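Exercise 7. Given the components listed, write out the predicted structure of the assembled complex. Treat all entries as one system.
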Amino acid sequence: MVTKGNAFDPNCPTRTILDRIGDKWTVLVVLSLRSGPLRFTELRDGIGRVAPKVLTQTLRRMERDGLITREVYPEIPPRVVYTLTPMGASLIEPISVITDWAETHVPAITRAQQRYDEPA
Amino acid sequence: MVTKGNAFDPNCPTRTILDRIGDKWTVLVVLSLRSGPLRFTELRDGIGRVAPKVLTQTLRRMERDGLITREVYPEIPPRVVYTLTPMGASLIEPISVITDWAETHVPAITRAQQRYDEPA
DNA sequence: CCTCGACGGTATCTATTGGTAACTGGCTAC
DNA sequence: GTAGCCAGTTACCAATAGATACCGTCGAGG
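Answer.
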């Protein structure tokens, strides 16, 4: 009943990572940084409507997890640059497997939902 | 700045699917049903502590998405059996790509977190 | 007749999270 | 002087996740 030994353990670290992947913004940050470092506002503008508070939270968590680095240039006006670490970059592959699956199955899922909702 | 044309669109269906993947329980239900259909209580007991309400929500959503089927046998006591659809089963592959990545990088992430938390 | 337990859930409440709107500080340009 | 830029922070609110308790139906046991 267990995948690789611990997927069903509530304290399983793998689950924590799944939470990150599932996090709406983390994935978008990774994809945004694919092609190079970006500043805070560049990320904010590139990703759709994201509240600065939420973006900050996401970035701090990703920095803590070692997925990105945060470099502060104490200039005026301030400049903060976010860069994918090698580990962060290695996430692109798994993410695209998921998004490929998603894009392949979107039509089927939409159809299933319509069938489910119809009788109501 | 866009992955495959729409990953950054808030209404993008791919994002909806990512939310499902990221959902703590959906993944565990898929993995639980890998080896065959299960009843509600079997799922509840197999997956760690999950509130019945939350499990019900998860299962309904997955049924709506066409990932599982729900068969009700109006016996006494009632019997409800959940089964992976082919589409649901096809999720196992992408999921294991993610969990493989996660398990590979758990040590590095843990180390990164410790380094981040230490100075405080 | 009365209670008990199995099953597959609801009902109700609280805690956590996601999100909005407004504000900060230092400096520069108008 | 005041308006704006950057990179956030703070105060606040709404939606969601989750824990706990309860429900109805039925047969078994006393």
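Discussion: Residues 13-117 of chain B form a domain with the Arc Repressor Mutant, subunit A fold (CATH 1.10.10.10). The two ends of chain B are 36 Å apart (CA to CA).
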